[in-house]
TrEMBL record:
GO molecular function, one term: zinc ion binding
Name of the protein this chain belongs to: DNA repair protein RadA
Residue numbers binding ATP: G98, E99, P100, G101, I102, G103, K104, S105
Species annotation: Flexivirga aerilata
Function: Plays a role in repairing double-strand DNA breaks, probably involving stabilizing or processing branched DNA or blocked replication forks. DNA-dependent ATPase involved in processing of recombination intermediates, plays a role in repairing DNA breaks. Stimulates the branch migration of RecA-mediated strand transfer reactions, allowing the 3' invading strand to extend heteroduplex DNA faster. Binds ssDNA in the presence of ADP but not other nucleotides, has ATPase activity that is stimulated by ssDNA and various branched DNA structures, but inhibited by SSB. Does not have RecA's homology-searching function.
Superkingdom, taxonomy of origin: Bacteria
Region (Lon-protease-like): 354-461
């Protein structure tokens, strides 16, 4: 009997553009990174890239490289420069991401106008709006300048031609998802188009030393739309944050090859434009003539910047059944944990009360250092007794009722003392060898029960 030769399995001809996962047939979803629409067909490699005959820029000893070409140049917007690490680096590409309508285009148009007034030639490419629409926004925010050039283009080849003609120093593209190349199949914004557009603009920026700002869209979950390779290609990734009903905007560096990633810029967005806030702490405090039960102040660290933020709590007797828990600006799961700790460890009965916890000014408290302030605000609301004026609380609350230490306590207390706070409740041992700011009384506690007892301390004259 003739033996049947075993057929050789075909070589993988499909690959995920995000993670490199391979498959023998096309699938709509990558089996490795679970991304949709990223599996594309690849051809077999028949030739390998040969070495170039000549090298335009030969390698040099590191000591002979001119480091001044990588020095950051200020944009004129102090809060934006803080996030970028001093300014825009020639040849650096910055990706500015955020939700629609949060103020990305307004900020970058202001940056473009300031650069143009400083004598630089700026090119602003808008793929979402016409040049007339951008002009109207420029008039509204007083961002008109002689050397600011506008172009409304969606074709990559035309955009590259505009760059060659204008020869800008800063280049702004709004947005990378609206530009498409005729050489690549697919609609603008898909994986292949975004990769090609970003790579082409990056190549031009590096070759000519053009500082470039790219606007990027985000998805429903807040991540940057398009392939992850987009974030790897650029030098800096900046994230815009803020609530639609609030004027406050935070700009945070997610990735930065030229500076720190723990800096945050604060802006005030209004009809007249977007303005930096060098001292935003007062935005997160209420203006009440008399102390109100259920309010407590904490100091959070946004990057390296301390922000004094007020927490408000309101308790209403429940109508039976499950008690209602509503939060705004604070994490709901941590609030539920703090409620359980107060009920179990501090003797503050809250299980039958409807609980409402919120911050002031649209601030978001995400770090555990605000736990103690939330706990004291809830205890104050339950007792119906306001906290002493000029009091703040900093500390993380554990399930055992202990108050744990947090980082940067001296910096937090210094910021609170600058604003006028006279008393602080902090975890025991947080100051270490450092002393409290002048004129501030510090109360160190080890558990939540001790912190609630500190509420009843007499107010110093």
């Amino acid at each position: 009997m003739a033996t049947t030769a075993r057929k050789k399995a075909p070589a993988p001809t499909y690959r995920c553009t995000e993670c490199g996962w391979q498959a023998v047939k096309w699938v709509g979803r990558c089996g490795e990174c679970q991304a949709w629409g990223t599996v594309t067909e690849v051809g077999q490699t028949r030739v390998r890239t040969a070495p170039a005959a000549t090298v335009e820029r030969p390698a040099r000893p590191i000591g002979e490289v001119d480091a001044t070409r990588a020095e950051a140049q200020p944009t004129g917007v102090g809060e934006f420069d803080r996030v970028l690490g001093g300014g825009l680096v020639p040849g650096g590409v910055v990706l500015v991401a955020g939700e629609p309508g949060i103020g990305k285009s307004t900020l970058l148009l202001d940056v473009a106008a300031r650069a143009a007034r400083a004598g630089k030639r700026v090119l602003y490419v808008s793929g979402e709006e016409s040049a007339a629409q951008v002009r109207l926004r420029g008039e509204r925010i007083e961002a008109l300048a002689r050397d600011l050039y506008l172009a409304s283009e969606t074709d990559l080849a035309t955009v590259l031609a505009q760059i060659d003609r204008v020869e800008p120093e800063p280049l702004i593209v709004d947005s990378v998802q609206t530009i498409a190349s005729a050489e690549i199949d697919g609609a603008p914004g898909n994986v292949s188009q975004v990769r090609e557009v970003a790579a082409a603009i990056l190549q031009v920026a590096k070759r000519h030393g053009i500082g470039t700002l790219l606007v990027g869209h985000v998805t429903k979950d807040g991540s940057i739309a398009g392939p992850r390779v987009l974030e790897h290609l650029v030098d800096v990734v900046v994230q815009f944050e803020g609530e639609r009903h609030s004027r406050l905007r935070l700009v945070r560096a997610v990735k930065n090859r030229y500076g720190p990633t723990d800096e945050v810029g604060c802006f005030d967005l209004s009809e007249l434009g977007i303005v930096g806030l060098p001292d935003p702490s007062g935005l997160f405090l209420s203006r009440m003539d008399e102390p109100v039960p259920g309010t407590c102040v904490s100091v959070t660290l946004e990057g390296r910047r301390p922000l004094v933020t007020e927490v408000q709590a309101l308790l209403v007797p429940g109508n039976g059944g499950s008690a209602r828990r509503t939060t705004n600006g604070v994490d709901s799961s941590r609030t539920a944990m703090i409620l359980a700790v107060l009920d179990r460890r501090a003797g503050v009965a809250l299980r039958n009360d409807d609980c409402y916890v919120s911050t002031v000014g649209g601030a978001k408290l995400s770090e555990p250092a605000a736990d103690l302030a939330i706990a004291l605000a809830l205890a104050s609301a339950k007792e119906g007794r306001p906290l002493p004026p000029g009091l703040l609380a900093v500390g993380e609350v554990g399930l055992a009722g202990d108050v744990r230490g947090v980082g940067g306590v001296p910096r937090r207390l210094a910021e609170a003392a600058r604003i006028g706070f006279k008393r602080a409740i902090i975890p025991a041992g947080s100051l270490g060898t450092e002393s409290a700011p002048a004129g501030m009384r510090v109360i160190e506690v080890r558990d939540v029960h001790a912190a609630t007892r500190a509420i009843a301390l007499p107010v110093s004259s």
